[in-house]
Write a structure and sequence with these properties.
Elements (H helix, E strand, L loop, with lengths): L1 E2 L11 E14 L2 E7 L4 E7 L5 H9 L5 E10 L7 E12 L13 H6 L1 H4 L3 H23 L3 E2 L5 E2 L11 E4 L2 E5 L4 H11 L1 E9 L12 E10 L3 H22 L1 H6 L5 H4 L7 E3 H10 L13 H8 L6 E4 L12 E2 L2 E5 L1 E6 L4 E8 L4 H10 L8 H5 L8 E7 H9 L20
Parallel strand pairs: 1-2, 4-6, 7-11, 13-14
Antiparallel strand pairs: 2-3, 2-5, 3-4, 5-6, 8-10, 9-10, 11-12, 12-19, 14-17, 15-16, 17-18, 18-19
Helix pairs in contact: 4-6, 4-13
This protein binds 4-amino-1,4-dioxobutan-2-aminium adenosine-5'-monophosphate and magnesium ion (MG).
Length: 430
Amino acid sequence: MKTTITQVPAYEGQVVTIGAWLANKRSSGKIAFLQLRDGTGFIQGVVAKSDVTEDVFQLAKNMTQESSMYISGTIVEDKRSPFGYEMQVSDIQLIQEAVDYPITPKEHGTEFLMDHRHLWLRSSRQHAIMKIRNEIIRATYQFFNDQGYVKVDPPILTGSSAEGTTELFHTQYFDEEAYLSQSGQLYMEAAAMAFGKVFSFGPTFRAEKSKTRRHLIEFWMIEPEMAFVDHEESLEIQEQYVSFVIQSVLENCQLELDTLGRDTSKLEAIKAPFPRISYDDAIALLKDKGFTDIEWGEDFGAPHETAIAESFEKPVFITNYPAAIKAFYMKPDPARPEVVLCADLIAPEGYGEVIGGSQRIDDLTLMEQRYEEHNLSGPAYKWYLELRQYGSVPHSGFGLGLERTVAWIAGVDHVRETIPFPRLLNRLYP
Ligand code: 4AD
Ligand code: MG
């Protein structure tokens, strides 16, 4: 019976065949222990000299790392392994012998591993991170589908900029200039006026010269947009969504979290509601914490965000930033127009901003005024104004950065390990 590693619990006591690679190996005299992986999981294969032919035993003993095979044997329970089962091997058919696999079980430098990312993805740590990423994606679709959202796909090639013009990738679009999308938001606003509640999930691009553990040049963003939803209501959706994702990972990725050594007690506490702190109060808090020269009107950097997050167990919303340091489309607070109805969600444990969101300007005249102030002109932006002309309604939305969320939940230091093939300031390979 041909099966996969994650399916073997159903075959306890039976002989099965698995297509696998050799991850690691140990042998002594009459026995060899093969650490096998097949993509779905990891299992130990025990090859006893007395159970197999001499050829098979020699093959097992001399097998090189990452060689591929079909391996057959009886599935037995093994209380000592985290997976709970092992295989008592009866036969091995080698598919290909791998010679000099470059990533050995010893320590390697990060640059070396990044150069071999196409192979590094096979390691148990990278495997665990990608499985958690996959679970976050799955839970995202479940959450928004269950709540009646429609998935809408905004374009990647665009003629307009959503998040400021300095971080755009320019490209030629026949005889026009185009950009790679920084955010699908503007298009999602159009979609919300057509479908009510929508979300997108796609790649976004920022030509940012930032070389930090939180920045990627290409990253994936989940962008919900809701008609007839104000800022406060949007915050409730955000905390519900993030809580749901965390609880889903805790439920479905226990093995992966174990592999990564993640302290899950910190995640178990992440349940809605989340605390909120205004930008004004955040400034005061920072001054208290020793950032004496920060002034009202300045944006927060990573050290500021980390210091603010330290005061809370759960993620914290920093709300109502000064209009001058936020995007052109954010709605001013009617009671205090120098600040906008927005929030950044800051993850605990120093993982930084995972969500940026706001209520959007719905008034045509005010939006036209913002266009002037931000030098947004030309046909590329005309359609966005028309959304305020024909049945404009209050609406809000947000963007959650997938890789920063994976880094936080998986407890990984740098976002480069949270996406299969990271695009970084100095890296387009592999
Ligand atoms: O705060 P940002 O720039 O917001 C927007 O793009 C809005 N248009 C979203 C919306 O309202 N629909 O980006 C949102 C999130 C950030 O909080 C962060 O998690 C992630 O995207 N992000 C990045 N992740 C990795 N590398 C980068 N360079 C990132 N820039 C933003
Ligand atoms: Mg932001």
